[in-house]
Design a protein that fits this description.
The complex is a heterodimer of chains A (1250) and B (127). Chain A has 1250 residues and is α+β, with helices and mostly antiparallel strands. In chain A, 42% of the residues lie in helices and 23% in strands. In chain B, α2 packs parallel to α3. Chain B is 42% helix and 20% strand. In chain B, β1, α1 and β2 form a beta-alpha-beta unit. Classes of the chains: A alpha+beta (1250), B alpha/beta (127).
Chain lengths: 1250, 127
């Protein structure tokens, strides 16, 4: 600038040539040029301007053309504002001072929004007419600070305002509303969200623009052929901000912002989603015509977009959660629908079965033997049971679907109930149980649906009967003022407390309950509850294991609670006997003496779950359709069997195993009946061949043989025969067995088909879900299948190792606990836990699984889904961490920009330093730094600019009242959206109290170190002393032998010299070195090695000395010795079974930017190395990896000593199997800064490099 | 009495042997635990009656030497002598394994040593 001013031809300006300048002007110009604050001098009546280097940036492109020119030419656009401000001091008025004056200036070719703090003061000049030569302007541009604060506010508003929205569109609309408050930064905004198929984007929020304007279409199609208003496709492809220029010409109606001219540019900013490389949408932000589009503007837009992205992601997660809950409800509905459909299918064939049986049984003249009659009765009873189950399911489904049409009518509940109870009486009393009914006639009629009431009572009584073996059942009906209570108490097995809450759930069955039967659908009590609900009542249960249960039903009196259109005024009195019959019939079957009759018919039990075709083979016409392959080499036998079977089936007869196999593959028989002994291929060979072929594997095979006895039977069973019939056999027996196997086989086939069908449906459902789906064995030891959906890796077949593959060792106990709990209660498993992702990193998943139960309530398998919630967890964790820090921290948190200007100041900072936020924000951080430590700040800022963090930086700050505050600083760079460093966040903790403790600790460790050293020294001294003792003893003993004595004395003298040498070495440790002196580091280390020589030797540790430099440093000798002593001693402890200790001393420069020259000492051992988790706290007090030696203070002391000498220490450690060991590296400056003595602890730093 | 003296400093071992021989014992000086054991094996069938050993030595330490010696010659008496606190760890370890050795502290008066090995057991040094 000085050169520029010298070059300028001043005679051409109104100031005239330099020689003509007044002394005042010259003095001012000199003052101006050397000043580093932006200064401006307006001289003379025309206010010709002179300025310094610091002012140049404010001028922009107006420099240098306006040097020496009148200010009204330079700042013509704001002259109307400036003129009065300049003239007032120039004409003898007071100096001008204005904080945050907003000026629209044009220095870069466009009108710009700027903010300044200015002070204009008069400059006296005796040669000037009025004694004032000009005006000196001190100018501080605060545009960045003003816009920065405004943007911070905008981001904060966004953060607070939109994060909790539960709907993506609402989140966007709200974000746009907030942006509308900041038109100076975002004159208009458009928020678009992408479709799920990413083919179109929809407007979800806007500000500063009418929603129907041309620039804000409701939908943007992402078709390459479709001309789009905004370069959306490019933004989505590159993920970068796109600028759109020339808005005025491109778009017919550009919205008007807060300034006189509308924005001409806009930025299209991508909004990221939780999925990498996929965008949730984009933000079109108008750019202020008054602001430069620079890094900070760009960073602001990025931050706005990421705030919106977070809000959108949160809302999306919420929406997904909602959808998932709906999907689960849908599964429940699907289950009911499935049962309903199945039940319906069953009812028709059941009715067709039961009607003819009833007809036969009812015919009084039927010509039935006792046996036939009892068999028909069994069939009828089981049919009735099935029908009842089916009806219950249908009933339930109807209630569920809201299709049930209750007819409430006034009933004498007492007599209705006692009728129902009495029907059970004979069955119950037959088993030796009592059944009592307590029912005082009620004062009024109770409105109930008779059918429903019957079902309530019958279900509860039959349930009580089912689980009661001793004692009996008590039924009571009470008037309870507003309601009627029906209490059914049994003395049965009872229900455990843990089961009670789930008792009324659909399909829930009490595990392990011993009842009269295992039959049950788990639906009876659920139905009772639904029915009671339909009456506006409630049902409760109390129970104790081994003592019995009481079920209570409360039905409100009157009819006010019932829908009027369903109320009948007159009692119909229609008895509903069939329903009662089915309950009683079923219950009677549970009684042991009747059970024998059912044993012969296990088949019927299995039929209950199969569709009607399973029953189809019972009539003769159906039997004839079955094909039986008969293989026997004996012609007579073959003919006999053929004739026997032909009356019922189609028979293909062959004479050996080979023919039989061919026929099997050709005609696919429904059953194979084969002899064992046959030529070419015997019966067992045939059986194996049939089983080996998947197509014929399921064909039932019955083996016929003359070889009776257990052995052959087992042989038959082993080879996989379905049955074994030994000759001779009765025709009836054979036919019965053939018939039974045919029937079984059909049932099996149909069941298979059903399973396949249901599996197909399940697959379809699974494929439709985007979550991970998995199947587990009943006890979870084996994973059967897992479909990872790109989130976690797949498992295709049984995998017993799944827990180690997917779940971190640390999380396994929690997962296993949740699994055990789920298995024990047969309830759904649900847990949020970490899971190994496809790329090997850990993510979070919300895993849910439901047990699939078989008809006995046993777990068949678990079906589960796992949702990727990593992104949500991250957001949650980050947020809670931040919140926790700010809320709970006792620390002062201060933000500053890269120029050291304080930008934020929390209440704790106010408390610690005494300055209020409004006093200090905008001021330099130097306000609280003692003058002698200002250089620290340069170091801090240079590290921050390099992106480094500073941790545990202990230093001193000055509070408002002037007191020194010892603080520990943690300083991290603050980055904008691009990753550019824009400032620093600093956490300061008050460590005045800690420091006191620390000093005490240092003393303790010094004593301990002295003690350790003394122990080492003692050994070194004790050994020579031992020798001397012995030698003296010998000299005394052999006193007469002069030559011997003289030899003993010579040796004793040598030993004593050793003692003396050691004593001299040691003295250094105890000398009080209160002042620093020049010392040789190499010599210090050599002395130490001499002292440790014995220990090194006994450990078989080789010592390598690599001294490449021998520089003297100014230091406290004792402390430096202690520092190295600690490190060498640690190295020895690290190598209990030998190794190498290498000490290298080199000349070097400090690692940090200051690059001071000095000495680097590296102490390297080949020990096992320091475990990763131990590295962090290595320099902390009381930290030790050695179990029984050491105070845990050594390294901390060493660090402090090094820091005191303005050096630093760091270390590298490896724990590999081959490469292992630790190297400590200490840098000591050869000359401490400013020739000051080593400072108080706290000015150096310890770093960890790994 | 047959005595083996182990010390990695030859001058200590040698002078001790000289003193012990002067007192009428049959004493041998070795400088490592390993050679003490080798020597004991060579002395079969006449076994050493006493082992006097330093504790902290390169290679096999005194405690380990003593333990091995006891396996080799169960009736051998052991006296450890040490001038170093670091041997405490070794002794504690031995004690945890059930070995209670007599311990003398360096420097020791030869008269005391002679009295000790000739007469009563010495008191185990307080650790």
């Amino acid at each position: 600038m000085g050169a520029l001013m010298r070059r300028l031809d001043w005679s051409a300006t109104r100031l005239g040539s330099v020689e003509t300048w007044s002394p005042a002007l010259r003095m001012m110009v000199r003052f101006l040029l050397v000043n580093r604050f932006p200064l401006l001098l307006w001289w003379g009546p025309d206010f010709c301007q002179l300025y310094n280097d610091a002012y140049r940036p404010i001028l922009g492109t107006k420099h240098p053309q306006f040097l020496g020119k009148p200010v009204r030419e330079c700042w013509s656009e704001i002259w109307h504002i400036l003129e009065p401000l300049i003239r007032t001091p120039f004409e003898g008025g007071p100096a001008t001072w204005m904080e945050d004056i907003t000026l629209e200036i044009n220095r870069y070719g466009f009108t710009e929004e700027t903010h300044f703090t200015i002070a204009y003061s008069p400059v006296p000049d005796e040669t000037a007419p009025r004694g004032i030569g000009g005006v000196l302007a001190t100018v501080h541009e605060i545009s960045e600070k003003v816009s920065g604060e405004r943007r911070t506010m905008a981001l904060r508003d966004l953060g607070v305002g939109v994060l909790e929205e539960q709907n993506t569109r609402e989140a966007c609309a709200r974000a746009a509303e907030i942006l509308a408050n900041y038109p100076k930064d975002i004159p208009f905004s458009l928020l678009y969200l992408l479709d799920a198929d990413r083919k179109a984007a929809h407007l979800a929020g806007s500000s500063g623009v009418r929603s129907d304007a041309a620039i804000s279409p409701a939908t943007i199609i992402l078709d390459p052929d479709e001309p789009a208003v905004w370069p959306v496709r490019k933004v989505i492809e590159t993920g970068e901000i796109e600028l759109v220029d020339g808005l005025k010409s491109r778009l017919n109606a550009v919205p008007i912002g807060p300034w006189s001219d509308p924005p001409s540019r806009a930025a299209v900013v991508p909004i990221r989603s939780n999925t990498a490389h996929q965008f949730a949408g984009f933000l079109v932000a108008g750019l202020s015509p008054r602001l430069r589009y620079d890094d900070s503007y760009r960073g602001f837009l990025d931050l706005v977009s990421s705030q919106i992205a977070t809000a959108v992601a949160n809302a999306r997660a919420y929406e997904q959660e909602k959808r998932r809950a709906e999907a689960l409800a849908e599964i429940d509905r699907a289950k009911t629908t499935f049962f309903t459909n199945i039940s319906h299918e069953l009812r028709t064939p059941l009715t067709l079965l039961l009607t003819p049986i009833e007809e036969i049984l009812g015919r009084s003249n039927a010509n039935l033997g006792q046996e036939e009659r009892s068999q028909l009765e069994v069939a009828h009873r089981n049919g009735m049971r099935l029908l009842k189950l089916v009806n219950t399911l249908l009933e339930f489904a109807r209630i569920e679907a809201g299709r049930v049409q209750a007819n409430y009518e006034p009933a004498d509940l007492c007599s209705l109930t006692s009728d129902l109870v009495s029907m059970f009486r004979s069955v119950i009393e037959k088993t030796g149980l009592y059944l009592t009914l307590e029912c005082a006639p009620l004062q009024e009629s109770i409105y109930v649906d008779r059918d429903m009431w019957e079902k309530i009572v019958l279900n509860l009584i039959s349930n009580a009967f089912k689980f009661t073996f001793n004692g009996g059942i008590r039924v009571r009906l009470h008037d309870q003022r507003d309601s009627i209570e029906l209490a059914i108490t049994d003395t049965g097995t009872g229900i455990s407390e843990s089961e009670l809450p789930r008792l009324f759930e659909r399909f829930y069955r009490v595990e392990g309950a011993s009842g009269r039967t295992f039959e049950g659908s788990g639906i009876g009590l659920a139905l009772v509850q639904e029915l009671v609900k339909l009456h506006g009542g409630t049902v409760t249960v109390e129970s104790a294991i081994g003592r019995g249960s009481t079920f209570r039903v409360f039905i409100p009196k009157g009819k006010a609670h019932l829908p009027p259109e369903r109320i009948q005024s007159i009692s119909s009195k229609t008895p509903a006997i069939p329903a009662v019959n089915s309950y009683v019939a079923e219950a009677s079957k549970w009684i042991p003496d009747r059970q024998e009759a059912t044993i012969d018919f296990p088949v019927l039990e299995e039929i209950s779950g199969t569709p009607k075709s399973a029953f189809g083979d019972l009539p003769d016409d159906a039997r004839e359709r079955a094909t039986i392959l008969l293989a026997d080499d004996n012609t007579d036998m073959r003919d006999y069997l053929q004739k026997l079977l032909e009356t019922h089936y189609r028979v293909v007869a062959v004479s050996n195993g080979v023919e039989a196999l061919e026929a099997t593959e050709k005609s696919r028989p429904d059953l194979i009946l084969t002899d064992v002994m046959m030529p070419l291929m015997d019966g067992f060979g045939l059986l194996r061949a049939v089983r080996d072929n998947p197509a014929t594997r399921s064909v039932p095979v019955i083996i016929l043989s003359a070889r009776a006895g257990e052995e052959a039977r087992i042989e038959g069973g082993d080879a996989g025969a379905d049955d074994y019939v030994s000759k001779p056999f009765s025709a009836r027996e054979l036919l019965a067995r053939v018939g039974a196997h045919l029937k079984l086989s059909r049932i099996r086939r149909n069941a298979d088909a059903l399973v396949r069908e249901s599996e197909k449906r399940f697959r379809a459902f699974v494929n439709a879900s985007s979550d991970v789906v998995y199947r587990m064995s009943p006890d979870w030891t084996e994973m059967w299948q897992l479909d990872g959906r790109g989130f976690i890796s797949d498992t295709a077949g049984p995998n017993k190792n799944w827990i180690d593959e997917y779940i971190d060792l640390e999380d396994q106990p929690a997962v296993l606990r949740a699994i055990q709990a789920a298995i024990q209660t047969k309830s759904p498993f649900e847990l949020e836990h970490r899971v190994r992702q496809v790329d090997g990193t850990w993510g979070w998943t919300l895993s849910r699984a439901v047990p699939i139960l078989d008809e006995n309530g046993g777990i068949v398998e678990w079906l589960g889904t796992a949702k990727n919630v990593s992104a949500r967890r991250e957001v949650e964790e980050a947020r809670s961490r931040l919140a926790a820090i700010v809320e709970s921290s006792e620390d002062a948190i201060v933000g500053k920009d890269l120029n050291g200007i304080v930008t934020s100041w929390n209440p704790q900072a106010e408390r610690l330093f005494g300055y209020k936020a409004e006093e200090i924000v905008g001021r330099s951080i130097f306000t609280i730094i003692p003058p002698e430590l200002h250089r620290d700040e340069d170091m801090i800022l240079s590290k921050i600019r390099n992106g480094q963090k500073i941790e545990h930086f202990e230093t001193v700050r000055i509070g408002k009242s002037g007191e020194k505050i010892e603080v520990s600083l943690a300083i991290s760079p603050v980055r904008d959206g691009q990753g550019n460093i824009v400032g620093a966040a600093k956490i300061a903790s008050d460590i005045r109290a800690n420091k006191k403790i620390e000093r005490a600790l240092q003393t303790t460790e010094k004593l301990a170190a002295a003690g350790r050293l003394a122990a080492t020294v003692a050994h070194e001294i004790n050994n020579p002393l031992e020798s001397v003792h012995n030698l003296v003893f010998l000299a005394k003993r052999d006193a007469s032998n002069a030559s011997k004595v003289s030899e003993y004395l010579r040796l004793a003298e040598r030993e004593l010299e050793r003692v003396g040498h050691i004593a001299r070495q040691t003295l250094g440790f105890y000398r009080d070195t209160s002042a620093p002196s020049r010392l040789s580091v190499v010599k210090t280390i050599d002395d130490l090695l001499f002292l440790y020589e014995k220990r090194l030797e006994s450990r078989k540790i080789r010592v390598g000395r690599q001294y490449k430099a021998n520089i003297e440093i100014t230091a406290f000798a004792g402390e430096i010795r202690q520092a190295f002593s600690n490190l060498i001693s640690n190295a020895i402890d690290a190598m209990p079974s030998g190794g190498a200790l290498v000490i290298r001393v080199t000349q070097g420069r400090e690692w940090s930017s200051s690059a001071r020259p000095g000495l680097r000492v590296t102490i390297l051992d080949t020990g096992s190395g320091i475990e990763l988790q131990a590295r962090k706290g290595l320099f902390e007090p009381f930290f030790t990896t050695k179990a029984d030696v050491g105070t845990g203070l050594g390294l901390w002391i060493t660090k402090n000593i090094v820091a005191k000498h303005q050096g630093n220490i760091r270390f590298v450690s490896r724990t590999g199997p081959r490469a292992h060991g630790t190297a400590f590296s200490i840098f000591l400056p050869s000359d401490t800064q400013d020739n000051r003595a080593p400072q108080n602890p706290g000015n150096g730093s310890a770093q960890v490099a790994q | 009495m047959k005595i083996i003296v182990v010390d990695d400093e030859p001058i200590i071992a040698d002078t001790l042997v000289d003193i012990l021989q002067g007192a009428g014992h049959e004493a041998f000086a070795v400088s490592t635990g390993e050679s003490a054991l080798d020597l004991a094996k060579l002395m079969r069938p006449a076994r050493p009656d006493l082992l006097i050993t330093d504790v902290v030595m390169p290679g096999m330490d005194g405690v380990e030497t003593a333990k091995t010696m006891l396996r080799l010659v169960p009736e051998c008496r052991i006296v450890l002598f040490s001038g170093q606190a670091a041997s405490t760890d070794l002794l504690l370890k031995a004690r945890a394994e059930g070995y209670f050795f007599e311990v003398l502290a360096k420097p020791m008066n030869p008269d005391v040593l002679l009295a000790t090995i000739n007469g009563k057991q010495i008191k185990t040094m307080d650790l």
